[in-house]
Amino acid sequence: MTSELPVSTASAPFDRVDADVILLTSDRVEFWVFKAILSLSSPVFESMFWANDSKSHSETSARTFEVPESSTTLEILLKLIYPTTTPTLKSYNDAKAVLEAISKYEISDLVLKRAKQLVAAKYIQKHFMSIYALSCRYRWKDLALTARESLRVDIVDNTIPYVKEMEEITAACYHRLLLYHRACGIAAHGADSDDKWFPTVYGRYNSSCGKCREEPGRAGINEYRTAFKAMLLRRPSPSTILDVGVPDKVAAT
Known about the structure:
253 residues, alpha/beta, elongated
């Protein structure tokens, strides 16, 4: 059983004997911390520290509080809160658990922003739907911009990949994601008149120039761009073009 596990102490900086409070995780790891730092970052921690149902530590005046989080989750959370530490995210599950803990403990906006940046930088492309679902659940509009990663998915022939976090969002949230994808697809469908969607190989080609369009050597470019209009309607992302690449006959023009 978990309660029978031996108690260990976390690594620095959460092992200071001059700390005034101890957080004991579900896997029996003690984090020796300063309640002033945590209280300033979280009203939940502040209320917890002044509760009367805490138990005394056998060797110090520091009080011990049990928390349901694992040592991995708590260490990342505390490193986000402490001003001189930077956490390392080893898996998306760890990142998700930390985001949920931040919401649970009502951690300050500054810490939340820091966490969002770390998670988005490392996991935005592979886990965009899960992050979008979490953003809808906690009303994080800035992180909900992960919706743009859905543009890499062809939702006509395929569907946005299922993740269990989708069970926790409303149909309205999912509907807005589909509307966003459709709106971007319609905008990208007109890309044959907008050069910014295409690789730099077209730097010498101006789609608004009548001479460029009529020049026989440019016919391949026109055909290529017209064909891509349909693809961009389904998958309106610059990666659609870059992933497929430029045909040799077009690149040679």
